[in-house]
Amino acid sequence: MITSSAEDIVNVLVLCTMSLLCIYLVVRYIVGKRQLEAEAELGIVLRFAVWTAHREGTCLVTIDHFLRAARRNPRVAARVGPDLTPLGPHQEEQTEVRFSPDFALALGQAKASARGRRASEYDLCDVFASLRVMPGTSAAKLLESLDLEELRLSLSEAKTASAKATGIYILNDDRSKMADVAKLFERQFNLDPAEAAYQMLRVHVLGYGFFAEPSGGTSMQLLEQARARAKELGLAELVITTERPDTRSWKRSATHGLLPDAEFGWTRSG
Predict the structure, then answer these.
(1) For residue 241, with 0-12 CB atoms within 10 Å meaning exposed, 13-18 middle and 19 or more buried, which class applies?
(2) Strand runs (DSSP E) across 75-198, as ranges?
(3) Which of 34, 68, 75, 174 is the right S-S partner for 156, CB 3.0 to 4.6 Å?
(4) Per-residue DSSP letter, 86
(5) Over the stretch 8-35, which tens digit does the pLDDT of each residue have?
(6) ∠159-216-79 over CA atoms, to 5°?
(7) Among positive and negative, which fits the CA dihedral 223, 225, 226, 230?
(8) Burial class (CB in 10 A: 0-12, 13-18, 19+), 121
């Protein structure tokens, strides 16, 4: 028989084990969310780097293109300074993408860094970590004092902050032309072409973009203005709403990004 005191000890051990398991799951959930945000931001930055390279008439994406793209993120810009380089003139559309040898090496090292953290995918901070140890590069000097874990946390906090703000959400789809959506952002939100392109790519990768209401306005006023502007640009099917979307059931397309489901009355074309 197990004595009463032995039963108490067993109960305490079970309780402690369950408590530690709960703490572990909570920490893993939080860390996982931070990881996903940094991974998503890397996708946006890489696409913008390709976009800017193509606008310059080249298919070769370099470290410089990547850093310029990364510094479009306000959380990165606040730590290493913004990039205000204007986009080059519109060039003939290109489909080929190549990475310069040093940038390809940095991406390979970032993958190894992610494996060292037991992460399934490498993220923006992993690439920064590999760039700042490459001797003799401007990237190393720019990123040398960057706190990567603090940045990873900041990227996750950015999404939380937007969830608490009021404004409108513009959803991705497979019908609207990317250039037209960027033009909408230029005209409706007074963004320069480079920033408009960056925000358009955020919508493509994340499935939606959030735009806070201006000071003194309301979400409904901003909604009506954005819908009217979209209609003027031939974007009548673009979904613009004040309802924050839940992207957990959305599907990712290799060519069209993260696409909404029928929750918003959206159906896949073709």
Answers:
(1) middle
(2) 98-99, 167-171
(3) 34
(4) P
(5) 665 555 455 544 444 433 333 333 444 4
(6) 35
(7) positive
(8) middle
Structure tokens at 223: 């909604």
What is the residue whose two structure tokens read 């931070």?
34
For residue range 169-205, what is the model confidence (pLDDT) as tens digits?
999 999 999 889 999 999 999 998 889 999 999 999 8
Q: In this structure, are residues 268 and 217 in contact, taking their beta carbons and an 8 Å threshold?
A: no
Q: How many CA atoms lie within 13 A of 240 on its CB side?
A: 26
- In this structure, the chain runs to a length of 270
The structure tokens 């067993």 sit at 10
Q: Which tokens hold the place of 161?
A: 């902050």
Instruction: Please enumerate in sequence order all residues whose Cβ is within 8 A of that of 22, keeping only pairs 6 or more positions apart, or say none.
Output: none
